[in-house]
Amino acid sequence: MKTIMIQGTASDVGKSVICTALCRHFYERGYRVAPFKSQNMSLNSYVTRSGHEIGRAQGVQAEAAGIEATYDMNPILLKPKGEMVSEVIVHGKRWADMPAMAYRARTLEEMLEPVRASLARLAEQVEVLVIEGAGSPAEINLKDRDIANMRVAELVDAPVLLVADIERGGMFASCVGTYELLTEEERKRVKGWIVNKFRGSKELLESGLAWLEERTGVPVLGVLPTIRMEVDPEDSLALQNMTGDQQVEGDKLDVAIVWLPYISNFTDFSPLSHQSACTVRYVQFVDQLGAPDVVILPGTKNTIHDLQWLKANGWMEAIQQAYEHGAFVVGICGGYQILGSVLRDEGQVEGAGGVESGLGLLAVETDFVPVKETRQQTGRLLAGWANQVEVSGYEIHLGRTTRGNGVMPLLRWVDGREDGAISADGRVMGTYLHGLFDNERFVQKWLQFIGEAKGLTLASGPAVDRQQVYADLAEWLRQHVDVERIERIMGIHVDR
């Protein structure tokens, strides 16, 4: 198995996107290729066909690589759910909720074993492994127990490429600082720099790149220009570019997504941001809400905490008023639970305990249970404006929600069970189905229904062709990075 590891000088420098592009490149070259990230801290997750939960980025990268995603591609997933507490997912299943210090004390003794096991299985299955690091390999306070960067490279003897984000400023300092903080053996693994998110004339950068090569002795393999990425972002830092008070122009719907403190799976809404009929914005403060056409409550890793946050910051009244003034309201997973009337956590599954009143826009009640539902799903809509339209996606939740009087189920799964709820007027709906907006036919029907209610003629654009996006990413990489040199670094010499 040939390997390459992409590490970065910081979080959100573009490691996930570059790994996705490399996965697609090797797939197009005819190799059986797979992604790998030993430990991922993310609230964006993905459910495999076998019902195992992994990081969303590795699910996307597997799709780009033309291979079925498995839990071996991300053996450890950490999902923050409270102050210094994370849910620990090991080999796709919930293992424990652990404080950061307790987890850190056990990483090398216990967590490295599932990483080794996954790498061994992948070595028997694939020819090329594209490995993604996490954050930076030079976090001195964490480095002695880091199992996401150089220690993984050592396990499989992988060459390392370091990615730097020039857009945020201070790139040369971050590159040299990262390199200098590595040990001598770790520096020997670093075989190249990739500069990402560059704008402007490359000629103005040449002297700096030459200095970086001379200062570190490591070649710059390419400079990637900033492009609009249709790939799901991995890090919540990416949301900062979509917040605030964007102007809604012409006949477009103003879609406001509430940025909850523990927002999860915000990639659910990426397809909406690509629709010409919508302006999508994430709102952090209640005075940013304005008068939207649609309010969305997304998933959350800590529903009770985020419900209490909504109450404390005036969001409950603001959302109710928006609904009274004609807004459509949607809740996904934890957001669906919040739309209901009662949420019970008497077993302290969420850690809060007790009973909380919800927003009350849907007559549903939720009980939190310790058994986590993780499965891919296919079903049909029961809403009148989209009756029998087929949708697919996946469930990830700990709650069980029951409907009361006055609401109808939103979906019926292929096994006959029902999910979600929709109000009698059709303006409030909730579901446990992540990936709902990836279903083009549903989105068209839903936007048409809202447009008619608002008296707008909406221009509905085509869905994003994900396979074409992956092909374009691979070509973007080949145009701006010396991919042939990367292959030589990996020991790949056969032309396919």
Automatic annotation (TrEMBL):
Gene: cobQ
SUPFAM superfamilies named in the record: Class I glutamine amidotransferase-like (SSF52317), P-loop containing nucleoside triphosphate hydrolases (SSF52540)
Metabolic or biological pathway: Cofactor biosynthesis; adenosylcobalamin biosynthesis
Family named by the database record: Belongs to the CobB/CobQ family. CobQ subfamily.
Function field: Catalyzes amidations at positions B, D, E, and G on adenosylcobyrinic A,C-diamide. NH(2) groups are provided by glutamine, and one molecule of ATP is hydrogenolyzed for each amidation.
Keyword Methyltransferase: no
UniProt-listed GO biological process terms: cobalamin biosynthetic process
Ranges for domain CobB/CobQ-like glutamine amidotransferase: 254-441
NCBIfam families, per the entry: cobQ (TIGR00313), PRK00784.1 (NF001989)
Record's protein name: Cobyric acid synthase
UniProt entry keywords in alphabetical sequence: Cobalamin biosynthesis, Glutamine amidotransferase
Residue span(s) of domain CobQ/CobB/MinD/ParA nucleotide binding: 4-225
Record PROSITE patterns: GATASE_COBBQ (PS51274)
InterPro entries noted in UniProt: Class_I_gatase-like (IPR029062), CobQ/CobB/MinD/ParA_Nub-bd_dom (IPR002586), CobQ_GATase1 (IPR033949), CobQ_N (IPR047045), CobQ_synth (IPR004459), GATase_3 (IPR011698), P-loop_NTPase (IPR027417)
GO molecular function: ABC-type vitamin B12 transporter activity; catalytic activity
HAMAP family with a match to the protein in the record: CobQ
Positions annotated as active site in the UniProt record: C333, H434
Pfam families for this protein: CbiA (PF01656), GATase_3 (PF07685)
Organism whose genome encodes this protein: Laceyella tengchongensis
